[in-house]
Amino acid sequence: MRAQKPLPRWVDIALMPALNVALAFVVGGLAVAAVGEDPFRAMQVLIFGAFGYGEGWGFTLHFATSFVFTGLAVAVAYHAGLFNIGGEGQAYVAGLGAIMVALWLDQTHWVFVLVGSTLAAMTFGAIWAMIPGYLQAKRGSHIVITTIMFNFIASAFMSYMLAQVITRPGANAETETIAETGRLPLLSEYFSAFTYSPLNITFFIGILALIFVYVLIWRTKLGYQIRTLGANPEAARYAGISAVAIIIIVMAISGALAGLMAVNEAVGVQKRLGVGYVQGFGFVGIAVAFMGRAHPIGIALAALLFGALYQGGQELAFVMPSVSSDLVVVIQALVILFTGAMSEMFKPVLLRLFNRGNGEPEPAGD
Amino acid sequence: MNTKILSKGLAARAGILAGGVALGALLVGSALAEPALIYDAAGKNDKSFNEMAWNGAEMYAAANNLPYSDLEIQTDAQREQALRRFARSGASPIVVPGFTWAEPVSVVAQEFPDTNFAIIDAVVDLPNVRSVLFKEQEGSYLVGALAALKSETGTIGFVTAFDFPLLQAFGCGYVQGAKAANADIEVLQNFIGTGFEAFGDINTAGEIGRSQVERGADVIFAAAGGAGEGALQAAADAGVYGIGVDSNQNYLFPGNMLTSMVKRVDIAVLNAFQDELDGNFTAGVQVLGLAEGGVSAAMDEFNAPLITPEMQAVLDDFIAKINSGEIVVHDYRSDNSCPVS
Fold first, then answer.
1. Cβ of B215 under 8 Å from any chain A Cβ?
2. According to the model, what pLDDT value does residue A340 have?
3. How far does A357 lie from chain B, in Å, by closest CA?
4. Whole-complex ipTM
5. pLDDT of residue A365
6. Set of chain B residues whose Cβ sits within 8 Å of the Cβ of A170
7. Greatest CA span in chain B, whole angstroms?
8. Is the pLDDT of residue A341 over 80?
């Protein structure tokens, strides 16, 4: 039997995700039509809300920044063959470190707040992720089970801390607010087009994180070890790579990346920490990472898509009140379903299509 | 019950459609001073707190035959955005139920000094913001007393969402009332979860309700928004009594619902809308206790057979004493502790 040629690389990384997104929008459009609204107008409102004006762009990029962090966290672990679904809890616990340092330094200057809370968020996130990492490396406890359980522990721990320990007097379950002097600058202070959007300086940390992950995974010895472990643990062992060390290090990096979301959302925008501030962004990071094929460029694009869905979705709920917020969640869920769980759905069709034409061999993707 | 929910849903949809037409008009530029309501994270149809707020808006719409706008939000970053959008489109007053709105309201209310805002369950001290607080402890005291009087086992239960001061105020009032009616009563207290999602976790609430019944509780007060229904169902299934919260939930399981601790969020929303319409909106803090009709133990045809004349006499006595100031129900939030447990 003649072996099938693999798909051209551009099909795999661009065409298939685009088809999946398109399909999600078609099905989402049917749902919109089912409640008696014009799906084309809904699409228009959604896209305009996300990209049509400065404030919309600002919200889209702000959400995208958080998704970049949680998406990279999943991707880095994935390269080592680890499925870290604890980004939610890691970002939550990181919020504790970030806000404590931010409140401690908020009388000085925002630069100290930025640096201090970034380091604290990364440290707290890393520690929270290292524990499941250690349990996986040393005890063989499956990382999927432990990271998801750590999400629950984080939730209980954090609501205790927020409601009992570091509560603002008179508040129910949130901390003090960061003082004016220590607040991170919003990009709207420099580019007035962003008006009231929450896009802040953390956006640039997001870009740095994307570059960092690219260099780490594909340009360093550690990255090579990570990929080797992920591709073939036996070969990695034979090559003298310590799986124990790599697993723990990778989980620490993964947790630190997830933790950066705290700087963007809690320190940068809400200027305080409240119960449940992560709001599922840690889980969306899983979809972002898979849709982005665990590559920084893909993750940036996927994060932008999800940021646009969040911002455009809110616009949709505002402009077309019969499209309830639940329906917006349905559309977002469809994108996750088609790009994540069913991302390979078009592969057999495309393989047949690309193998049918001329007999010339396609250049193999790496 | 199902048909009731369905018809409610249909009414809601009709309401939204009507609002939508008006909102479309707003967006093209005509600045009407239409009131707006933005729900808290749990969303509109939670059969409890937010739905109570929506009922208030509907009461306003029905009484004046005027439209209003409403919106559900998805993430915290959208709170300020939603407030600003309504303020910009000329809506006033903008009413938000829930203490999580405090910070966003304080930011946006300063940007729009000519727009009126109202927040429920928190205080925002600005000249254009009305803050509405409830004395949840007083209403909880009354239902606690009824629970203790009804209990035959000497054990009653309290199920709530998660551990934070507002919910502790419910629990503390409940225990105080129960102990006042029967000094030997034992009160089981359990939390459903650890975050706001607990307000929607009907299944866990049911588990906890069943566990409290197994530990001897024969009256369970479920103060957990939409999740409370799970515990009330567990009580009804076991043939014991439940106590609802926020809305009057007596109709849910007739014969097994002792009463409901009603918190008139709807009145707060209606008043804010109506005061603006009548031109006498006032800022400042409003505290709605028992005397103001803000909280009460619900009495209707569904629970009338369960309330004996003796219980009614004790209840009336406590109401009179709270109103006269003879009984001061301790507010957990005043010092973050409860004198009884």
1. no
2. 72
3. 47
4. 0.75
5. 45
6. 123, 333
7. 65
8. no
Q: How far apart are CA A354 and CA A4, in angstroms?
A: 10
Which residues of chain A neighbour B16 with C-beta distances below 8 Å?
321-322, 324
* Residue A3 DSSP class: P
Identify the helix (H) or strand (E) that includes residue B146.
Answer: helix B136-150
Q: Does A149 touch chain B (CB under 8 A)?
A: no
Report which residue type is found at B153: T
Give the CA radius of gyration of chain A: 22
Nearest CA-CA partner of B216 in B186, B195, B249, B246:
B186
Helix axes A202-219, A54-79, angle to 10 degrees: 30
> Chain A contact for B195, CB < 8 A?
yes
Q: To which residue do tokens 């509405």 refer? A: B132
Side chain identity, residue A32: V
Domains and CATH numbers, chain B: 2-134+265-288 (3.40.50.2300), 136-262+308-335 (3.40.50.2300)
Residue A328 near residue A313, CB atoms below 8 Å? yes
Residue ranges of A 178-207 with Cβ closer than 8 A to chain B: 196, 198
Nearest to A276 among B77, B123, B196 (CB): B196
Three-state SS across B168-225? HHHHHHHHHHHHHHCCCCEEEEEECCCCHHHHHCHHHHHHHHHHHHHCCCCEEEEECH
Task: Give dist(CA B114, CA B92) in Å, integer.
Answer: 9
Between A2-11, A170-179, B80-89, the lowest mean confidence (pLDDT) is in A2-11
Q: What does the pLDDT look like over B218-265, one tens digit per residue?
A: 999 999 988 999 999 999 999 999 999 998 999 999 999 999 999 999
Q: Map out the domains of chain A as residue ranges.
A: 62-191+201-303
> Which chain B residue lies closest to A159 (C-alpha atoms)?
B194
Residue A159 contacts B, CB cutoff 8 Å: yes
Closest-CA distance, B273 to chain A, in angstroms, reads 20
Of B58, B60, B107, which is closest to residue B81 (Cα–Cα)?
Answer: B107
How many Å apart are CA A279 and CA A271, to the nearest integer? 16
- B309 pLDDT exceeds 60? yes
pTM of the predicted structure, to 2 decimals? 0.84
CB contact under 8 A, A159 and B164: yes
Min Cα–Cα distance to chain A from B121, Å:
10
CB contact under 8 A, A172 and B163: no
**What pLDDT score does A337 carry?**
86
Q: Which of A151, A165, A269, A314 has the highest number of chain B CBs within 10 A, making it the mutation to test binding with B?
A: A314
Could you tell me the two tokens for B88? 């910009």
Q: How many Å lie between the alpha carbon of B80 and the closest alpha carbon of chain A?
A: 9
DSSP secondary structure of A285-342: HHHHHHHTTT-HHHHHHHHHHHHHHHHHHHHHHHH-TTS-HHHHHHHHHHHHIIIIIT
Please give the average per-residue pLDDT across A63-73, as a whole number.
Answer: 97
Which residue in the block uniquely carries the two structure tokens 């969040």?
A310
Q: Is B295 helix (H, G, I), strand (E, B) or coil?
A: strand
Taking the C-alpha atoms of residue A65 and residue A310, their distance in angstroms, rounded to an integer, is 12
Question: Residue A31 burial by CB count (10 A; 0-12/13-18/19+): exposed, middle or buried?
Answer: middle
Residues B274-296 have a mean pLDDT of 93
A163–B162: do the CB atoms touch at under 8 Å?
Answer: yes
Q: Look at B164 and A173 and tell me if their CB atoms are within 8 Å.
A: yes
Residue in B with minimal Cα distance to A62: B77
Q: What angle do CA A215, A59, A316 make, to 5 degrees?
A: 130
**B103 vs A172, A196, A272: nearest CB:** A272
Which of the 8 DSSP states describes residue B83?
A: H
**Closest CA–CA distance from residue B17 to any residue of chain A (Å):** 6
